[in-house]
Amino acid sequence: MRIGLLTEGGYPYVSGDARLWCDRLVRGLAQHEFDVYALSRSEHQEDEGWVPLSPNVRRVRTTPLWTAEDDEVVLGRRARRRFTEHFGELAAVLCGGPGGASPAAGGVPNSAGLSGSAPTLEADRFANALYGLAELAREEGGLAGALRSEAAVRTLERACRAPGAHRAAREARVPDLLTVTAHLERALRPLSLDWYEDDGLGAVDLCHAASGGTAVLPGLLARHFTGVPLMVTEYGVRLRTHYLTAPDAPPAVRSLLAAFQGRLAAEAYGRAEVVTAGNTHTRRWQERCGADRQKLRTVYPGMEARPFAEVGESPDCADPDTLVWVGRVEPAKDLVSLLHAVAEVRKQEPRTRLRVVGAPAGPEGAAYLGHCRTLAAQLFPDEAEGPHADGDNPVSFEEIGGPELPSVADAHASGAVTVLSSVVEGFPVGLVEAMLCGRATVSTDVGAVVEVIGGTGLVVPPRNPRALADACVALLRDPQRRARLGAAARARALELFTVEQSIEAFHGIYLEIVSHAPVRRVLLDGAGAPLPFAVPAEAHVPVRWTAASPRLTAARSGPDRPAGRPVRATTPAPAPESA
After folding, report:
1. Helix (H/G/I), strand (E/B), else coil: 158
2. CA 508/CA 260 separation, integer angstroms
């Protein structure tokens, strides 16, 4: 089987999001071929390079989202009219203009739910506008210039000023319109790529988008142009991320971009054969954004258990007075509350120490780390056991890779209790690592924490240092309870969160999708002869085509290409191909 893996700011880049689970997936399914189509987020990310690629990665194509390249396409009069029509329709849907629906409370578009006749109509309008722009971009060679043009800004302004537009859109000012237009141009940049021909995504058996947002667009367009089935995996919904990362944005910008994320998510969920969530928390958001429950599956991100086996099998090696925090240092981790909690803990257990292990996440993380160091120095002046001993701070800030903590497992092994103090969390990978190490945990009730812990650790409300301190004291004073919770946590992690379970689940989904969307083409080798075993066996599984399953009847015959047309196989290309 040949899978097109679609990523945004992720695999194969060294600093990419979710690069670990993508790499584990590719390596774990060595019997299948992967073509990677990656959107990079920054020049720094590209300069850092790629992770070592698995031999079954046959091709990598990349394009930047962080810079706008001029496609030098000049639209004629008819093309400009079509662009204005389609972009205007897209803007009208986002603004809730004529025929549109006003956003629901909180800024989530009503149509994201895809329930009822009016929401369905709005979803169709969004889809027609999106694919209309895609077809125009394909015919003209790109729309990058048009999406950045003054005409696009004026079209958006007309939609915002139209009767029926919701209040936030009507109040949009010129800077707001420019900001929204720039965001839309970046998000719609995949429309102008040349990835959707027979030598690109048209040659794969399945498109797997590793996240929502812009990463799903190539999959949607491959499905539209060539009929390739689409699968979407999310460990965090982009609409939720938008709310969390843009709280201070102007209301018009916040509302319009939330509407776009909601409409795009609903379109992706509607077109995808299967939608997987990394946890129940994400799954609930997917349902809220319009995903059909019958399409939804929960697949936890798999963790490699072997590096933690030695620590997990030797739970008594920890310092009984030490708390450990492991992760990326950033404001969302709320280390400030943790430091205040440790100050409360030391009033009852003076021998308690805290090891903060992790590197800062970007410039913001570095500034936050400096703030935490200053706070720790204020809360815990250096203490000495006697007049001739050196002072020592009970809180240390360290990074993995040094002589004392060469690995993540060593970091968790250094303490009796692992603490998670986040105020925002998706799937808590660090918590699973602690569970694999057999450590008792104290965590805040955010994201998928309760789902992951499942009763094998203590959970407290976020931003509550007193509750965090009480939970830590309870475990520090009761070594038998720590041992029971640690053993239960390790057993749960080995049962649910290993890479083997994740790979097996994805493999089963791949086979299921291909069996319902058989390949009807001949794949050719470099000499032009039919490629042996090019079609997966699942493609020959008999499927009963019924009127009740309209998504199966259009298996692989795209609107622009008859079924059965031969496609030439690609050869490995280790160097990136920038679009």
Report:
1. helix
2. 32
Tokens of 428: 């808590």
pLDDT tens figures, 107-157: 444 434 344 445 677 788 999 999 999 999 999 999 989 999 999 999 999
Q: How confident is the model at residue 545 (pLDDT cuts 50, 70, 90)?
A: very low
* Residue 387 banded pLDDT, cuts 50, 70, 90: low
Q: How far apart are CA 148 and CA 217, in angstroms?
A: 19
Mind listing the pLDDT tens digit for each residue in 300-341?
A: 988 889 999 888 887 667 789 999 999 999 999 999 999 999
Peptide bond before 576: cis, by omega within 30 degrees of 0? no
**CA-only gyration radius of the chain, Å:** 26
Phi, psi of 137 (to 5 degrees): -60, -40
Which residue blocks in 426-546 are alpha helix, DSSP H?
429-436, 449-453, 465-476, 479-496, 499-516
* DSSP-assigned letter for residue 233: E
The letter for the amino acid at 78 is: R
Q: CA-to-CA distance for 436 and 488, rounded, in angstroms?
A: 10
Contact between 38 and 17 under an 8 Å Cβ cutoff? The reply is no
DSSP codes of every residue in 94-150? HHT-TT---B-GGG-BGGGG--SHHHHHHHHHHHHHHHHHHHHHHHHT--HHHHTSH
Query: What residues pair up with 304 in beta bridges, in sequence order?
Result: none
Structure tokens at 337: 């509350």
* Residues 344, 379 contacting (CB under 8 angstroms): no
Phi-psi region at 463: left, alpha or beta (left = phi > 0; alpha = psi -120 to 50): left
Task: Give the angle subtended at the CA of 322 by the CAs of 477 and 390, to the nearest 5°.
Answer: 120
- Label the pairing between strands 523-524 and 567-568: parallel
Q: In this predicted structure, what is the pLDDT of residue 201?
A: 94
Contacts of residue 20, Cβ cutoff 8 Å, sequence gap at least 6:
none
- Our CA angle for 548, 553, 556, nearest 5°, is 150
Contact predicate 46/38, CB 8 Å = no
Quote the pTM value: 0.81
Q: How many CB atoms lie within 10 A of CB 167?
A: 12
CB 513 within 8 A of CB 273: yes
Give the residue from 33, 24, 25, 28 showing the smallest Cα distance to 4: 33
> What are the angstrom distances between the C-alpha of 62 and each of 81, 189, 193, 531?
31, 12, 10, 27
Enumerate the H helices of 16-96 as residue ranges.
Answer: 19-28, 43-48, 77-95
* Alpha carbons 277 and 283: distance in angstroms, whole number: 5
What is the token pair recorded at 42? 């920054």
pLDDT, the chain, mean:
85
- Give the pLDDT confidence of 233-253 residue by residue, as tens digits: 998 888 888 887 777 789 999
295 phi and psi angles, rounded to 5 deg:
-90, -15
pLDDT tens-digit profile of 417-474? 999 999 988 889 999 999 999 999 999 999 889 999 999 999 999 999 999 999 999 9
pLDDT at residue 175, rounded to an integer: 95
Cβ–Cβ under 8 Å, residues 194 and 579: yes
> How many helices and strands in the chain, by DSSP H and E?
22, 16
CA distance 267 to 1: 26
